[in-house]
Design a protein that fits this description.
heterodimer; A: mainly alpha; MetI-like fold; about 65% helix; B: mainly alpha; MetI-like (chain B); transmembrane helix (chain B); MetI-like_sf (chain B)
């Protein structure tokens, strides 16, 4: 438990306690104790977390070792059967690969494009302020709205993308109906959605780079790309790291764009882990909650590993500071 | 010297051109959706596609969309649930933040770590038990189901605690000496001074939950209880491709968030980057 944290000035009794720990324990312990009423302040959030985060976490464990009947009630204990089914299912291997590919397809281009744009936008000026707003606009698009707009672009007959290909003499592709392109098309939509957010964060990072460091580098003759490469990018490493980690986790949790654009198809070529949870648990009233919960545990594990890596990275940063 | 200035000017001009090109590409879907929602389909699907309407503008896409699905009702569902969630998260985060950062209740660090830990659990991974909880309470297809799991958030508490740790404690101590109760201090001293943090949290929470998709998709069964984000996807029909209609729906769903993003970038950044440094 925490040590005696001073609550208010004048009540810091740690000195007293050290002097007389035995003689008057009753009296001395009093200021240390938190009045029960103070815990009321934690109660609202605590109740919500208990019912909708902690309890479901245990339920996920329980469901993952349960068989579910047609109505979705977990009535039988099946041990690790859901997990053996999971890991012997060749489809599941494909789904994990899709999930990892989707993270690469979305995070790498998003970071590269937003870094390039935000480095160009760094200088404060009226023009740049207008540009910033324009680049931030995709962030306002919800996953369903963005997916609807892009599904029009992907339309094989009338969509913009195939029109462009045809202008250059090509014959167009089935963006969402071809197994080779479906996941990439969803990723393209996601990259567009995420650029705004990434640029906002990177610009905030660039804005907090101390002016004198940049000035000093300029006086030493650094300019243009050298300045960006050796000064600016290293100084916004925390923001880049943050975006890579949160972007990866976010891509693992993607659902809406897959649901609206492809429903995981064709032939599960765009099914990711979260979408497969949905397919087994909810689509067509499947109610296969046991199998889906086993998948959910895999998701929790993957996200936990990435988060631990993030905390490791943050710890290192604090040491440097 | 003069040559140098010309070359830097040229370089800057080139930079602006590149930015302009990129901005056009990134903004095109925004332009296209807004334009498409008021353009006639003959213009939208013509080949090569028209960027500018040839046959005039029309409200018929929007009118048809509103008649096809109960968009008005879904708008209310979205606004209502998002506002309730936002207000509740500010309240619960402020209360918890006050207890952890200012009263420093016993075990504050442990409580804080526990609350933070809830951020690590992906919502999608625990959605099945949450769905079952809502179902067993008989709350499926209700307004309560839309908001109940989101009345508190680990991120909100994280933001409030981080903010309140820098709170001028002298103010609190002085008020305590004057015999103020904690609730009174929270209400008349801490709350007014927390407005910047509360505003950032409010904008962030509003954007997140206005755009929510999976949970409303699961718990809202009838069109009457669905949110606008789910509603607009009903405008997509696999056999009858009608881009004007779907654009009209998409635009209606993004108007509130486009306004927020255009006006409140600074606060958004403050909210978004709360986790990125320190």
């Amino acid at each position: 438990m925490s040590t005696s944290a001073p609550r208010f000035a004048g009540q810091n009794s740690s000195v007293h306690r050290l002097q007389s720990p035995v003689e008057k324990p009753e009296q001395e312990r009093k200021p240390q104790r938190t009045p029960i009423t103070q815990y009321w302040y934690l109660l609202p959030a605590g109740i919500v977390f208990c019912i909708f985060v902690v309890y479901p976490l245990f339920q996920t464990f329980r469901l993952s070792v349960s068989g579910t009947d047609l109505f979705g009630s977990a009535d039988t204990f099946v041990g690790l059967r859901n997990f053996t089914r999971l890991f012997t299912n060749p489809d599941f291997a494909r789904i994990l690969v899709n999930t990892a590919l989707f993270a690469v397809y979305t995070v790498v281009p998003t970071i590269v494009i937003s870094l390039a744009i935000s480095l160009m936008l760094n200088r404060e000026s009226l023009v740049n302020r207008v540009f910033r707003t324009v680049f931030a606009l995709p962030f306002a698009y919800s996953v369903s709205a963005a997916s609807i707009v892009f599904s029009a672009f992907f339309n094989p007959a009338t969509g913009l993308f195939n029109e462009i290909i045809r202008q250059f003499g090509g014959s167009g592709v089935g963006w969402l109906t071809d197994e080779r392109f479906a996941l990439l098309s969803i990723a393209l939509t996601t990259v567009w959605m995420n650029i705004g957010y990434n640029i906002l964060v990177l610009l905030a990072g660039l804005g907090s780079v101390p002016e004198d460091i940049v000035e000093a580098a300029r006086l030493d003759g650094a300019s243009g790309l050298r300045l960006q490469h050796y000064i600016m990018i290293p100084l916004i490493r925390p923001q880049l790291f943050f975006l890579i980690v949160t972007g990866t986790i976010q891509s693992l949790e993607s659902f809406g764009q897959i649901h609206v654009l492809t429903k995981g198809g064709p032939a599960s070529s765009s099914t990711t882990l979260v979408y497969d949870i949905y397919l087994h648990g909810f689509a067509n009233n499947n109610s296969n909650f046991g199998y889906a919960s086993a998948e959910a545990l895999v998701l929790i594990l993957v996200v936990a590993i990435i988060t631990v890596i993030q905390f490791g990275g943050m710890g290192r940063k604090v040491d440097v500071a | 010297m003069n040559n140098n200035r010309v070359s830097t000017l040229a370089k800057r001009g080139f930079g602006v051109l590149v930015l302009l090109l990129l901005a056009c590409i990134v903004a095109f879907p925004v332009y296209y959706s807004f334009m498409g929602s008021v353009m006639k389909n003959t213009d939208i699907v013509s080949s090569p596609p028209r960027i500018w309407p040839e046959h005039g503008l029309t409200w018929s896409n929007i009118v048809t969309a509103v008649h096809l699905i109960p968009l008005g009702r879904q708008y209310l569902n979205s606004f209502g649930s998002t506002l309730v969630i936002t207000a509740s998260q500010i309240l619960t985060s402020l209360l918890a933040g006050y207890a952890l950062a200012i009263m420093k209740v016993r075990g504050a660090k442990i409580w804080f770590a526990l609350f933070l830990g809830t951020m690590m659990i992906p919502g999608e991974a625990i959605i099945i038990p949450n769905y079952l909880t809502i179902a067993s309470l008989g709350l499926r297809n209700s307004f309560i189901a839309l908001v109940l799991p989101y009345l508190a958030s680990g991120f909100g508490i994280f933001m409030m605690v981080t903010f309140l740790r820098q709170f001028p404690m002298e103010l609190v101590e002085a008020a305590r000496l004057d015999g103020c109760s904690h609730l009174r201090i929270l209400w008349s001293i801490v709350l007014p001074l927390s407005r910047p943090a509360a505003a950032s949290l409010a904008i962030y929470t509003f954007l997140t939950h206005w755009n929510g998709f999976l949970w409303p998709l699961l718990v809202a069964e009838t069109p009457q209880m669905q949110t606008i984000q789910i509603g607009i996807t009903q405008l997509q029909s696999p056999d009858d491709f009608n881009p004007g209609l779907t654009m009209a729906g998409a635009v209606m769903a993004v108007v509130p968030t486009v306004i927020i993003v255009a006006l409140c970038q600074r606060q958004i950044v403050r909210g978004l980057t709360a986790g990125s440094s320190r």
